[in-house]
Amino acid sequence: MNPRELLLASYRAAVAAADPLQIVPPHLPALPRGGTLVVGAGKGAASMALAFERHWPPNAPLEGIVITRYAHGLPTGRIKVVEAGHPVPDAAGEAAAREILARARELGADDLLVALISGGGSSLLALPAEGITMAGLKKVTQELLRCGAPIQEINTVRKHLSAIQGGRLAAATRARVLALIVSDVTGDDPTHIASGPCTPDPTTCADAAAVLEKYAIAAPGPFAETPKPGDAAFARTENRIIATAHRSLEAAAEVFRAAGVTPAILGDSITGEASEVAKVMAALAREVRSHAQPFKTPVALISGGECTVTVRSPNGRGGRCAEFLLSLGIELNGMKDVHAIAADTDGIDGSEDNAGALLAPDSLSRAPRLDAKKLLAANDSYGFFSALGDLVVTGPTRTNVNDYRAILIA
Fold it and tell me: For a tag site, which of 27, 206, 328, 350 has the least CB within 10 Å?
């Protein structure tokens, strides 16, 4: 198997390990005495809903509504799928979130509320708190995304501007609550995944205000405090992580191992500015290639997590995966026998239609008329890899366990 195909096969294995159609059925709960309401939000919400209703007894009561990103829907029978805006919330998400909260409030103690949560849910489950407008919520979301704030900081703000996140969904119902969660955040803490609609929130209004002050962003209105750990509402709530980035990295490692390449998992929680993380990875690759330290070749350096991009150009195209690769390519400068892939497991890397891209030793030399450093400075990694025909395009995968990166040193 050539390096390109091996890298692509490893990425496909990472995505498959988080496929809701495979991972949801083993976690279906026992039938309640009353009815079952399935709600949810995220890029994997439609696939999770389809898996749930396929395996739920056909004669048992079941209804529901989930929200997913535009073009991520699937045909379902008993659970309604609504498509809405991501990463910036919109009116469709607001209306669907309002319906979810209202229906959760109607449930009784004998009923079951199942929340299907995956990455992207923070934007999709968009129901502004009292005193906050949708326009204000959209504006602060856009500003936080542009300044490169980590997802944990963004979600700290979101939870205190929301009527449904930060544990408020679980607190609003009398029913037993089971949240099945596909993790897209480093550390797999449920409070940060889709801004934790069923999880007690340890952060405060003061924390949210501090984030906005850090980035010189004006608050769109008054913050609302969230339910905290120890609140009685969470005594009947279970948050269960059913897919993680690390499990996907382990699946990719098996692909390399089967091909006779030693996999080295560097971690599933690598964060930081994408172009700067690439410099560190390039230094490690040089050490391996030149001195067989700390790994002997052939080896695949595998990592996950969620880097950030500080947008410097309003006309930039691409996302953190392609930006990581372009910076890596510049640092390696054509180093022999080093190939790499970086792609988001949700199939969308930033602003365009690609999941990520592939890097080869000759990538920069194959594009002599492209100024790689200038394109990196302009946040146009998409333009570089598109010109080479080296974009990874999958379409929506309907799951999300963060970014996948592999550097193959032959």
Answer: 206
